[in-house]
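Hello forum,

I keep getting stuck at the same step: I have a sequence, I want structure tokens, and every attempt I make locally crashes halfway through. Rather than fight my setup again tonight, could one of you with a working pipeline run this one for me? It's a single chain of 192 residues.
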Amino acid sequence: MHDEELTSLEEGLRRLKIEYHIFFHGNQGKAPDELRLRIERLVKKLSESSDLSFSQRFRFNTLVARYYVYRDLWRRTQQEREMGADGAGGAGSKAAVAPTPSAAVPPAPALRVSISDPEAEEGKVRKLYEALVAARKTERGKAQISYPQFAELVATRTRSIRQRHGCSRVAFTIALKEESIRFTAAAETVET
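Reply #2:
Ran it on my machine without issues. Output:
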């Protein structure tokens, strides 16, 4: 019984994080207050429950701690957004809207691969793809990209970045940051 409620709390927290992300980036008109209130009711119900096992209590405390970190971040971001809208006229204050990463959640180690010719370095592209697939397994509801699609994406980005920056290599990075996958590509500078 409590395992289902804890899973519901975890899913609700994941959804709430997404909704706030959408809200803060201007794609949703109002804050997801209804979902936040449902989560708070569930937190209160579970905190008053005296029959949680040790492992359930540990899981609950972990989820609640994460929720409180997010809630504080959302509150501060909302305040910055309101102050920015009042002081800077709204449109120019977009930089203050983006939430900063929380220091309480350490970033997972990233995989960094340097590629100059994706066709000739298929092993590196395959390694990147496998890391992305493994990371995506932790995210429910995410559609998997096929290897040919991924290889084409890497080739396109490599050509584009090499042409734009005049570099010989492109550094691709896959990292898990606050339960979100970050896949980035950047010109690799040669250190002398």
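The first strand starts at residue 111 and ends at 115. If your local run keeps crashing, start a new thread with the error log.
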